[in-house]
Structures are given as C-alpha cells and as structure tokens.
Amino acid sequence: QTGLMTDVRSRPSVHAVVARKLKLDTLLAGGIAGAAARTLTSPLDRVKILMQTQYLSSGGQADQYRSIWQSLVKVYREDGMRGYWRGNGANCVRVVPYSATQFVTFDHTKTWILEATGRDPNDKLHIPERLACGALAGMMASAATHPLDVVRTRMAVQPELTGIFHTLATLWTEGGVTALYKGLGPTLASLAPFVAINFASYDTIKNFFYPNDSDRPSTIGSLFMGGSAGIIAQTACYPLDTVRRRMQMKGKNYTSTLNAIVTISRVEGAAALYKGIWANTLKVAPNNAIRFMVFEQLKGSKVFAALFGY
Where are the Solcar-type repeats located (predicted)? Predict the structure, then answer.
C-alpha cells in the first residue's frame, strides 16, 4: 500500500500534464503561425523597412522610395521577385521563436494572474491586466530574438550582405555583442506597447464575440479580430518602430529614443516618423490576421488534438 501511495504521489497531476501539453500546443501553433504570416507579407515588410531607413542609407539624398507601388516596382526592377523576400530566411529564423514565445508568455501570464489573485481559471482578465500580459510577452520575445531582428534590417537595405551568417559576422566585426543588440532599447520601447495593445485588443475583441472559452473562433472571425487588433496597435506605436529601425542602421548615432525622435523631426520633419506607415498597415493587418487565424485553427485542429492527446 505504501508503494502504491508513493507511486501515486510521484505521478504528475492531470492538471500538470494538461498544462504541459497546452504549453507545447501553444508554442508550436504560435511558431507556425508566425512563420506563415511573415512569409506571406514579406514584400510589404521589405518596402516598409526601405522607406523607414532610406534617409540614412542614401546619405540624406532625396527619397528613392516614395510610395508603396513605386517601391514595389523599384525593388522588382533591381532584384526581381527574389528582392521581395530578401532577408525572409532571417525573418523566419527569428519569427518562429519570437511568435511562439509571445503566445506562450501571454497565455502563461494570464493563467498566473488568475491563480495569484485567487480567481476562477475561466474568469476574464481586466484590460490593464491584458496589457501587462502582452507587454511581458513582447519584452521576452524581443530580448530573445533581437540579434536576428538587426540581421533582418541590415539584409533588407544592404545588398552586399549575402546571408544570415555573413551579416552576423559583419555585425560582430563592427562591434561585437554591442552591434548585435544595437537598438534594443527602442525595440523594447516600441514592441512592448505594440504587443501589449495587439494581444489585449485581440483578447478583448475575442471575448466580446466569443464569450465562452470553449467557443472556437471561425476562420473569418479570427481574421477580422487579428486584423483589427494589428491596425489599432501599429497606429499607436509606429513612430517608435521608425526610431528602432534607424538606431539599428549603421549611420548616424542617436543618443536615446527621445533624441532620435527630436532629431528626425527637426531634420526631416515630423512626417518622417510615419514614413512607410501605409505599407506597414497593409502588412500588419493581413500579417496579424493570418497569424491569429492560423494559431486559432491549429490549436483547434484534429491534428493537434491527436498530437497532444486532448
């Protein structure tokens, strides 16, 4: 009997087993969703980065990328179809762990808050709590994958950099670890609020249309909710994203995020902080829509149910 009791105590609880499966479920679904969304919207992401950083890369000359369509045509003429997906390998290497970390951290933090406050697991979080969960998810994901984000930016604007490893080696030669984490401050400053607003918006909209956790969002529903959340978040945070890209670029050194905002506004005008925002809107809305849709459909699929045993 003692041996039986010891064996029972040594076994993980049903709750622990289910929780572990759901974490793996969320991790895998988040990574796949991020890669799918990023690949499908890569051309607009390339255009957005070119429009944001052209002042530095052109030495302050007149803008070469003036509109979304003109920029898409210019990229095609110079690099062909491959130009639209330049740097997408680095994108996917980065975005899989980045997206997976976001979803897992957000879900885990939501659960932790409910447990810490003694509430029922099925209770809904308040909006400030959702924002806090999203901010933590953004910071965790950004800190873990920032070097690859720098690589992505440099590859998008410098054709002489031929691949991920070549770019990493170049950055290491330029400044070691410091170069790999250049712009981390504004990255956290821009992405933490973006992810916070994005996830909080999606979660709030989802709870409105699907109040029961057992309700699985439809494909159209998750596309709409994801696109709406992305537009809300990027509109609020775009100037900080521009500053982040500028500080990652080899060129003029800004002493701080505030200094970068002031300098850009004084030299190029305040509108420069919003360069590429329409390309970004056209990218963020479908990217976010696809990411949340793929995530929701994977988590609710028979394949995942069979794979994770639920």
Answer: 21-112, 129-208, 217-301
